[in-house]
# Entry
Amino acid sequence: MLPSDTSKPTRMAKMGPFNTYTTKQLADLAGVSVRALHHYDKIGLLCPRRRENGYRTYGPDEVDRLQLILVYRASGMGLTQARIPVAPYARPGTLELAASVVDACQEAECFLLEKHGAVTFDTTSIAEAYRKAVYLEEMAHLYYNALTLGQGAEPPCISQDELSAWKYPDQIKLGE
# Structure
């Protein structure tokens, strides 16, 4: 699931005796450091089970969660909690809406407004904010279509290698 190299065994084939990975095994498989996995655990993004000896163990659910973290990290969308936050609903033009927007801005550079739409921003340029808005819209469309086609089942994730290699085609010029 994480790597797309078909010459390597699948995720389940490489897992330990109880369909789990050690921290080192998962770090090697996902192309991240052991320190990164420990950091994700410390901040509550990826919370593996613990063995009796205190060692972390990662099962299929944690592997899927790590995939999501890596996708959001690679997206360049400023998603600090590996999720697209949703600001709670408040009537337009109210202080409550402003407060929910401020909270969401502290978590990510793009977020959804419940029952309103989406917001993106960037501290460097309006073109980058626009790129994030376009990307967020594309992700929402793809996700909706995948859910519809899969009759509500979560779609499979794209490999980290494929995601890292992705870029907008040269014909698309944003901010020009």
